[in-house]
Amino acid sequence: MCRHLGWLGEPVTVASLVLDRPHGLLVQSYAPRRQKHGLVNADGWGVGFFDGPDERRWRSAAPMWGDASFASVAPALRSGSIVAAVRSATIGMPIEPSASAPFTDGTWLLSHNGVVDRGVLPLSAKAESTVDSALLAALIFDRGLDALGDTIAEVGAADPNGRLNIIAGNESRLLATTWGDTLSVLRRDDGVVVASEPYDDDPAWEEVPDRHLVEVDRDTGLTLTALRGS
Ligand code: GLN
After folding, report:
1. Where would I find the Glutamine amidotransferase type-2 domain in this sequence (predicted)?
2. Summary mean pLDDT of the chain
3. What is the CA(132)–ligand 1 centre distance, in A?
4. What topology does CATH give the domain 2-226?
């Protein structure tokens, strides 16, 4: 199981979300607190963010803790819409930069925390890697993000062992699902964080119940909806 995080709000630095927190993704890469599957997340990492309408990504197949170049640059990367992940590869899956989230269709950035039987997913020439998460991302992009909840419920029904936690963001919206793993939300004055686990011990973190869809919109705020099959 990987750990992931999304931000929608005022521009903040990548370092402030990912590196500087006492239990941020960097620490979660070697000492996650709520991870049920896998001990460390050392099989790669990725950070994606919107720079105006353009999405930009930096992905790696190495542990985040060893990347001094990223640590040097992250304090200068600033965005109002960020999706980041550290990866613990599912057995049998490739370890390569293109298998690290976030995935993109050029419009959205998307991370998957979990596992899905590739046999229940359509083959897609658009998938960035043969990893299950990339095939799932391609299906979600194909169906459209407005159908995210329905797509997850459908894949969950087809693969009862699937764990399908998603975080997806574009310039103005941030979406997340819980299906088999943990997710917490922090409503800050300057924006909203969704994360597999809290990056600190602020009591304002709220746990999202399983099989729910979180939608954050710059105009309408945060809504939580139960998914079909819950
Ligand atoms: N199954 C995906 C992979 O192999 C995601 C793994 C995870 O959530 N740990 O990368």
Report:
1. 2-230
2. 96
3. 7
4. Glutamine Phosphoribosylpyrophosphate, subunit 1, domain 1 (3.60.20)
